[in-house]
Specification:
Largest sheet: none
Low-confidence stretches: none
Distance between the termini: 17 Å
Number of strands: 0
Shape: flat
Structural class: mainly alpha
Strand content: under 5%
Helix content: over 70%
Length: 143
């Protein structure tokens, strides 16, 4: 996996998280009373997050231009979606989801969602671990 592929994946993941957070804040703002001080705080948070999204999207464009400008020679082998997330990122999300499951109500819809997410993260972790092992073996010239 190339360094550029990892950078593109991390940047894309961060942008998607920010967009999800931006959407949640905007939804909250829509349901906030017009005279509430919370409305101003939400607007400030949204403005800051929107600026971060803009900066992230500009950096992604610059990376894409670098790859295309180099004639694809620095292009990763996989698309962004095919590039596995870094193992530490998967494990952090897995831990957070396990914690949410432990803190949640057993048998609730949220618990069911968390359990399914944990299964998905477990499979993703194993795929990323296997890919890292294969890359390590290829780097040593063994198969």
């Amino acid at each position: 996996m190339s360094e550029m592929g990892n950078a593109l994946r991390a940047s894309s993941d961060a942008l998607l998280r920010d967009l999800t957070e931006l959407q949640a804040l905007e939804q909250e703002k829509r349901h906030t009373e017009p005279d509430s001080p919370r409305l101003v705080r939400l607007a400030i948070e949204i403005e800051a997050l929107a600026a971060r999204v803009m900066g992230s999207s500009m950096r992604q464009r610059e990376r894409a231009e670098e790859i295309v400008g180099a004639g694809g020679s620095s292009a990763p082998d996989d698309t962004i979606a095919e590039t596995p997330r870094e193992i530490h990122v998967i494990l952090a999300e897995w831990r957070d989801t396990e914690r949410a499951l432990t803190d949640g109500v057993p048998g609730s819809a949220e618990a069911d969602i968390a359990e399914r997410r944990i299964d998905t993260l477990r499979r993703e972790y194993h795929r990323a671990h296997d890919a890292a092992r294969r890359r390590s073996e290829e780097g040593r010239g063994t198969s």
